[in-house]
Amino acid sequence: MLDPADGSTNDLTPAGAVALDASDPLASFRSRFFRDDSELNRIYLNGNSLGRLPVASVSLVDDVVRRQWGQHLIRSWDEGWFELPRRAGNLIAKIVGASSDEVVLGDATSVLLFKAALAALRARPGRTTILTDDLNFPSDIQVLRSAARLTSPEHQVVVIPSDGVYGPVQGLEDALVGSRAEEVALVSLSHVAYNSGWCWDLQATTKMAQKAGALMLWDLCHSVGVVPIRLSDSGVDLAVGCTYKYLNGGPGSPAFLYVNSLRTELENPVMGWFGLANPMGFSSETEPAEGASRFLTGTPPIISAALVEPGVDLVLEAGVERLRDKSNLLTRRFVALVDKELAHLGFSVRTPRESQFRGSHVALGHTDALAVGQALINEAQVITDYRPPDLLRFGFAPLYIGFREVDDTVRRIKGVIDSGGIGRWRGVRPVVS
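-> C-alpha cells emitted (433 positions)
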C-alpha cells in the first residue's frame, strides 16, 4: 500500500513521482486498459466523465455480437441475457455495500432517478418538499422538479445554496429542523459534486434526513468505484449511479438503482414487463418482482449492459479501499503542485483540500478556463474538461493514472500558458467540452 507517511508522498520533485509509481500496488492495472500507439504521449484525465476501455471488453463485445447475437440469436435469452440486469447488479452491490437483491442494472441515470424520486414522494403523502443543493448535477435538479410537478401542484424542490466548493451542511441541517421539516418528503444529493468534487458524509447526511422523517436518495455517479460506499450499513433508502465513469462500462452504458430491502412500500411508477415476478407469463395481473428488480421496466440494452461487467470486475479486483488511498494521493499531489507552480498564473483550487471531503477529481478555476482546456486537449495532449463559467476538471482514475502523469500535467499546463495557448483558443467552443 502507498503510505502517506512515506517521504515520497511529500516529495514534489520528479524523483518523488517516480518513487510513488514504483511502489504503487495498482500499477499493473494500467495494462488492463486499451491503448494504441497514438496514445503514447496522451494523458487522459477525464475518467470522471468517461472511463477508459478495459481490454476484456474488446473481446467480450465481439463475443456478444458474433456468437451470442449472431449465432445463438434468441436462444441467448436463456443463456445469460435474461439475468444480465440482476447479475451485473449483484456485482455492483459488492462495490456499494449492498445486498445482492438491492441493486439492479436498469435505464439511464436520469430515468432511474426519476423513478426513485417519484416512488419516494408517493411513499411520503402529506409531505411536499424535496431538498437538494446547488452543487447537485443540474439534470438531477430538473428530474426532481419533474417528479414534484407530476405528484401535485403543491410539491416543490428547494435548492440550498452553497459557497460553490463545499456542500451546505449547515443549510441542510437548518432545513431539516423546526416546523418546516415536517414538509420534507425527500432529500436528494450527489455524493460527490460534479463540479467542485465535494464529497458528502453519506451516513451522517442520511441519518439527518431520516431523523426528520424524509427519505434519502443519493446520486453516486462521481463516487462509485473510487470512494468507499456502504449503502446498507448507512441505512440509505435509495441510490442511483452511472457505470461509464469510474466503472468503465462504456459510453451511455446503463445506470444502476439501489433500493433498500426494508423499503417494501416503494413502488415502481413506470411498471413494465421486466419488473414483474413472472415476465414470461404475459399477464397484466402479474405481481412485481422482489427487491430492486421491481423497478425494472422494459427490455434491457443487452450489448451495452454486457460491457458493464469487465470494468466492475477490475474495481472489485483492485478493491475500493486501495483505489481510494491512491486517489487521495494523486489528488493531493496535484493540488500541491498547482499551489506551487500554477497559482501565480491565475489558477485557483476550487475543490476541498481535505481528502475526506474530496472525490477523485480536482476543479481548477481560471478566467480563461475554456481556452486553457482547448489548448491542453489540442496542443498538449492532456484530456480534461470544462464546466461553465470558469472551471477545468481533472479526473484522476486510480486504476490507470500514475503519479508521473500528475507532474507532467502541471508542466504541460504551464507550457500552454507560456506559449500563448489562451490567445490561440479563446472563443473556440466545441460541442462537448
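The mean pLDDT is 96.
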